[in-house]
Amino acid sequence: MKGSLVDIENEYFNSQGTPWPIRGGPEVSKRLDATHFNVDTKAHIVIDTQVCNGCQSRPCLWACPAELFIAKADGGILFNYENCFECGTCYVVCEGGAINWNYPSGGYGVIFYLG
Amino acid sequence: MTTPSSYDVVVVGAGPAGSAAALAAKRCGASVLLIERGPFPGSKNVYGGVVYPRILGEIIPKWKESVPVERWITRRSTMIMSENSSLTVAVDSEKWNKETPNGITTLRSNFDRWLAQNAVAGGVDLVCSTLATGLICQNGSDKPSTANRVIGVRTDRRDGDVLAKVVILADGVNSLLAKSAGMYPNFAIDHLTLGVKEVLYLGRERIEERFCLEGDDGCDLEIMGCTDDIAGGGFLYTNQDTVSLGVVLSIGDLATHHTRPEMLIDRLKSHPSLAGLLKGGTLKEYSAHMIPEVVIGNWPQLSLPGVLVAGDAAGSCLASGLWLEGVNMAIGSGIAAGRFAANAAKDLESTKWSGYDQSIKESFVGKNHRRFQRAPELVMSDSLQRIYPKLANNIASSIFTVTDPIAKKGVLQTVRSIMADSDISATKLALDALKIWRAFR
């Protein structure tokens, strides 16, 4: 396993409009420390940045569970394939067909030791 | 260039469907190769946490003696969550113990590996860390059709082509091979949900104390009304020294409501009904996977000449709210695929491939899907997601709130006044009751 155990104890915060006090957990990138990745040298997902630059709705920012799509200040989208769960949500949710989605080479990518 | 290896049956994907298919085909006398893209079977797989293992008896009669179990589920609970209360129905059954089990919690890395090991022990060849990259067809293309039979698969190994009389695609919810073969004509975003899960370490003692469990008994908790504006649900399953906690979410809703999955996990974990159970848990693994929630009418094409689809790739997962069953359905469809493939391999020319579709539809997999085909849409509807969880909690908490010195209203009047305050008409209630009846009868 890559990281040590991630402590979920975190400070409390009250998020507006929620009915009970939500205790915020760590950022997604921190949670991913508990998951193992055997990163392939070649990206298995390639995004068409031109399509992304023109995209208004940008559903990938919300739906990708590993938060691999990040909004750039200039309106574009930054994507990193390395901590990908290979779940397929991004190509399903993308309306513009900007995502060329494949699996990593055999043996590479995420490894769920618990699942 | 070496001559490609050749098998009667090549199975892509060593998950529950693939390993069951491989073993079933081998038992029928076929030579079988099982290909897995992960470094070990199960390494790419995630689920909520419960397997209903009864179907294993079909291929591994003594499965109970060796299946890797975290806990035997003796309590099955459904929690209807609302803003500041929850209503739980729990079924405790001593019958569901180790001797006559119903559900088990198990980790997929253990379970899938165990199932694949059984296939290997039965004579199946297993090769891991190998990605199937395409189908090979009679006319040299990679697009099968009724006139162009599949004769093998390409892999990303050097000289990695493998010839097969029959190929079984058990490569999961994202079956790129079935997709490129044109077997998903009805593909749509609302046929899929996203499951996101945390495995939290609590330690055996804390789990047994907090959940009132003894020995290897376990409990499962399904949660309705816990995902805010996003259609979905939650779950909490006890493993030996960890719990699996997660949410299953409508993918489209996440984008529409600008909500991220981990927000809903945190929200769920913070609910007063769960926070105490999970306190002090440390994260052991964070994971996500898509779940096919395809009703039978939208199922993919299950066969083309030389190729069969099974498991999640075939949409076999049953997401009906009351019953959430994936692994057993995958195993069931895999067994059907394996048996059909082994027989087809004996006489390719006279095989009627649609006979496989028929055999799936007539198996428990198809019958359960047909019977509960209205359930997935109903379960994800606004009524069951928001309106009734709130109503049920209001009614329950009002009934049990002592109003002294004001005398009790009684059940009927309490229900009436809460109904009057809600915007649910008697007509809507009657129509929904009918829908629920039709979906689950």
Largest sheet geometry of chain A: 2 strands, antiparallel
Helix-and-strand structural type of chain B: alpha+beta
How do the SSEs of chain A run, as a string of H and E? EHEEHHEEHEE
Assembly state (oligomeric)? heterodimer
**Which stretches of chain B are low in confidence, meaning pLDDT under 50 for 5 or more residues running?**
none
User: Would you give the CATH topology of the largest domain in chain B?
Assistant: FAD/NAD(P)-binding domain
Total beta strands of chain B:
19
Mean pLDDT of chain B: 95
Helix segment tally of chain B: 15
Protein architecture, described:
The complex is a heterodimer of chains A (about 120) and B (about 450). Residues about 1-15 of chain A have low confidence and may be disordered. Chain A is built from four helices and seven strands, in the order E-H-E-E-H-H-E-E-H-E-E. Chain A starts with 5 loop residues before the first strand and ends with a strand. Chain A has about 120 residues and is of the alpha+beta class. In chain A, a hairpin with a 5-residue loop joins strand 4 (about 70) and strand 5 (about 75-80). The radius of gyration of chain A is 16 Å and the shape is globular. Chain A has helices at about 30, 50-55, 60-65, 90-95; strands at about 5, 35-40, 45, 70, 75-80, 100, 110. The relative contact order of chain A is 0.23. In chain A, strands 2-7 form a two-stranded antiparallel ribbon. Chain B is of the alpha+beta class. Chain B has three domains: about 5-70 and about 105-185 and about 300-360, FAD/NAD(P)-binding domain, CATH 3.50.50; about 190-290, D-Amino Acid Oxidase, Chain A, domain 2, CATH 3.30.9.90; about 375-440, no CATH class. Helix content of chain B is about 35%, strand content about 25%. Chain B contains 15 helices and 19 strands. Chain B has helices spanning about 15-25, 65, 110-120, 175-180, 205-210, 250-255, 260-270, 270-280, 325-345, 355-360, 365-370, 375-380, 380-400, 410-420, 425-440; strands at about 5-10, 30-35, 50, 70-80, 85-90, 105, 125, 130-135, 150-155, 160-170, 190-200, 215-225, 230-240, 240-250, 280-290, 305, 305-310, 320, 325. In chain B, strand 13 and strand 14 form a beta hairpin. Chain B is globular and about 90 Å long. The termini of chain B are far apart. Chains A and B meet through strand 1, helix 4 and strand 7 of A and helix 3, strand 11, helix 6, helix 7 and strand 15 of B.
